[in-house]
C-alpha cells in the first residue's frame, strides 16, 4: 500500500500452500484441493455492493484480493493454479483495463492462471483421484465454510471432509512471514490507539474517536479495513460488551470524569489486530477507577507472566479470574474465601466473557475446537472461551480480562445465595453505572513464554503521563 507500509511477500502464501501439501500427502497424495474465493455481496436488492473482503481460507492459500476467483492446489506436484473471471470488454469501461492472465500469475506467484470457465478442462487434465473441497463449521459463528462448487463438478469424486480440519489447524500456528504481518498490523493499531487516547476529551462523541482511529489506520498504515466493528464505549456504555452496533452506533458524548473503553483493531491484507484500552476522559483516574483498572491489569499481567507452550488456555482463564477476585476482595468489594468464590463461578458476574481468543486472518481465528483437541467446557465462564487448547509456539492470541458492572448480572448474583454471600452490597452499589474496564493485548507465544506485541500505555501512571503529553511515541516503538 505504498513505501510507508509493509510489503506482504508472496513467500507467505507459498509457504502456506507448501505446509498444506505436506500434510495432505500423508493422507491422500493423489488429490487436488479446490477452493472458492469470496464473491461480491450486494446491499439487499440494490446494485450497490459492500466493499469486498476476501474469504480467509482463500487469502491464506493465495493472497488474492479480487472477487469471483477459484484456486487449485495439486497435492501431487504442489503446483498452484488460479482461476479468474472472464469479463466482457464492457468491464473495462467501468472497472479499468482487463488484466492479461500473465499479470495475475506474476502478481500472485502461482504456477498457472486460467479463466473460471476452464476449470472442468484443467481438472480433467490434472486427473487426480479426489477433489478436496472445504466444508466445516466455524466454532465461533456456528456457520459453515462455503464449499467450492460449479457446473460440472459432479464429474469428479469430491471429498469435503478431509481438508477442513487440516487447513484450520495449520492456520493456528503462524509462519515467519505471517508473524511479520501480524506485528505490523498490531503496531499500526497500537499507534492509532495512542493517537485516540491523546485527542479524546469531554464534549466529543464516541464516533468522533472512532473516526480518528479509522482515519489513522488507513492514512498511516494502509489499512483499508478494521477487523470488526469498533467498540467505543464511554461511561456506562463500557459495560456493553459489543457496544457500537447499529442500535448503539458509538453516539454517546464523552463526559468529564468517565472512563472510555475503546476496543478497535486494524486489518492489513486480511490479518487482524484486536486491542482494547481503557482510560479516563479527563486524563486522571478517580480512586474507584484506579481500583478497578489495576485489578484488571494485575489479572492481565498474571497471564502474560504464566503463559508458555504446553499451558492450558482454560487454566489461564481461571488464573485471570482468581487474580481479579483477589483484587476485588482486597478493595472491599468482595468478602470470603477465594476458593469458594471460584467454585461458585462468581468471576463470570464481573467478566462474562472468555479470557481471549486465537488471532490471525480472522479476529476470532479458526481452530479453537477441532477434533482431537480439548473440547468446550460446559462450566460457566469456561464455556465462553473460544478455545481450550494448550498453547503452542507461534500461536497468536488476545489476553483481555475485564471487569464490568452489568445490572442484570449483579441483580442475579445478589438474588443467588451461593453468590450473594461474597458480595458487599453497599460497596457494590457505588459501582452501579460505572461501566467497565477491559485491557486487551495481542500476544505471540514463543518457546520461552509470551511476547506482548501491543504498544500502548498500560499502567495508571503511563496512561496519565501519555494523555498529559509527558511521553512521546519513542517510548512505545
From TrEMBL:
It is an enzyme of class 3 (hydrolase). Coiled coil: none annotated. The keyword Protease applies. SMART domains: AMP_N (SM01011). Keywords: Dipeptidase, Hydrolase, Manganese, Metal-binding, Metalloprotease, Protease. Residues 8-142 form the Aminopeptidase P N-terminal domain. One of its GO terms (molecular function) is metalloaminopeptidase activity. Its EC number is 3.4.13.9. It comes from the Eukaryota. It catalyses: Xaa-L-Pro dipeptide + H2O = an L-alpha-amino acid + L-proline. Its cofactor is Mn(2+). InterPro entries: Aminopep_P_N, Creatin/AminoP/Spt16_N, Creatinase/aminopeptidase-like, Pept_M24, Peptidase_M24B_aminopep-P_CS, X-Pro_dipept-like. GO terms for biological process: proteolysis. Belongs to the peptidase M24B family. Eukaryotic-type prolidase subfamily. Homodimer. This is Xaa-Pro dipeptidase.
Amino acid at each position: 500500500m505504498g513505501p510507508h507500509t509493509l510489503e506482504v511477500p508472496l513467500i507467505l502464501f507459498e509457504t502456506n500452500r507448501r505446509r498444506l501439501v505436506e500434510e495432505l500427502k500423508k493422507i491422500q497424495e493423489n488429490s487436488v484441493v479446490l477452493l472458492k474465493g469470496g464473491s461480491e455481496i450486494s446491499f439487499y436488492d440494490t446494485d450497490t455492493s459492500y466493499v469486498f473482503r476476501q474469504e480467509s481460507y482463500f487469502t491464506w492459500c493465495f493472497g488474492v484480493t479480487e472477487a469471483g476467483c477459484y484456486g487449485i492446489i495439486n497435492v501431487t506436484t504442489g503446483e498452484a493454479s488460479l482461476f479468474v473471471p472472464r469479463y466482457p470488454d464492457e468491464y473495462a469501461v467501468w472497472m479499468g483495463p482487463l488484466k492479461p492472465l500473465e499479470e495475475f500469475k506474476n502478481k500472485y506467484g502461482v504456477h498457472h492462471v486460467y479463466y473460471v470457465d476452464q476449470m472442468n478442462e484443467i481438472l480433467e487434465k490434472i486427473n487426480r483421484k479426489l477433489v478436496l473441497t472445504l466444508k466445516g463449521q466455524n466454532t465461533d459463528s456456528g456457520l459453515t465454510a462455503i464449499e467450492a462448487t460449479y457446473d460440472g463438478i459432479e464429474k469428479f469424486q469430491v471429498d469435503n471432509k478431509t481438508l477442513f480440519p487440516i487447513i484450520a489447524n495449520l492456520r493456528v500456528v503462524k509462519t515467519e512471514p505471517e508473524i511479520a504481518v501480524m506485528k505490523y498490523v498490531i503496531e499500526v493499531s497500537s499507534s492509532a490507539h495512542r493517537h485516540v487516547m491523546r485527542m479524546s476529551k469531554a464534549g466529543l462523541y464516541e464516533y468522533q474517536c472512532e473516526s480518528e482511529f479509522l482515519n489513522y489506520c488507513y492514512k498511516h498504515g494502509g489499512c483499508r479495513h478494521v477487523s470488526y466493528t469498533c467498540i467505543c464505549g464511554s461511561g456506562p456504555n463500557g459495560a456493553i460488551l459489543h457496544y457500537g452496533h447499529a442500535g448503539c452506533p458509538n453516539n454517546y458524548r464523552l463526559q468529564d470524569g468517565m472512563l472510555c473503553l475503546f476496543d478497535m483493531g486494524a486489518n492489513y491484507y486480511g490479518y487482524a489486530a484486536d486491542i482494547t484500552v481503557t482510560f479516563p476522559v479527563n486524563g486522571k483516574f478517580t480512586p474507584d477507577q484506579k481500583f478497578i483498572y489495576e485489578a484488571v491489569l494485575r489479572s492481565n499481567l498474571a497471564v502474560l507472566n504464566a503463559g508458555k507452550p504446553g499451558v492450558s488456555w482454560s487454566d489461564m482463564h481461571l488464573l485471570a479470574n482468581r487474580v481479579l477476585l483477589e483484587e476485588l476482595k482486597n478493595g472491599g468489594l468482595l468478602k470470603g474465601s477465594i476458593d469458594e468464590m471460584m467454585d461458585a463461578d462468581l468471576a463470570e458476574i464481573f467478566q462474562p466473557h472468555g479470557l481471549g481468543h486465537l488471532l490471525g486472518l480472522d479476529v476470532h481465528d479458526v481452530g479453537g475446537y477441532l477434533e482431537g483437541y480439548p473440547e468446550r467446557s460446559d462450566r460457566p465462564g469456561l464455556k465462553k472461551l473460544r478455545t481450550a487448547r494448550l498453547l503452542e509456539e507461534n500461536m497468536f492470541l488476545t489476553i483481555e480480562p475485564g471487569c464490568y458492572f452489568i445490572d442484570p448480572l449483579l441483580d442475579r448474583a445478589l438474588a443467588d445465595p451461593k453468590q450473594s454471600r461474597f458480595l458487599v452490597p453497599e460497596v457494590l452499589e457505588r459501582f452501579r453505572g460505572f461501566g467497565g474496564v477491559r485491557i486487551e493485548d495481542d500476544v505471540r507465544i514463543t518457546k520461552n513464554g509470551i511476547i506482548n506485541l501491543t504498544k500502548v500505555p498500560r499502567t495508571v501512571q503511563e496512561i496519565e503521563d501519555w494523555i498529559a503529553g509527558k511521553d512521546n511515541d519513542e517510548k512505545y516503538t
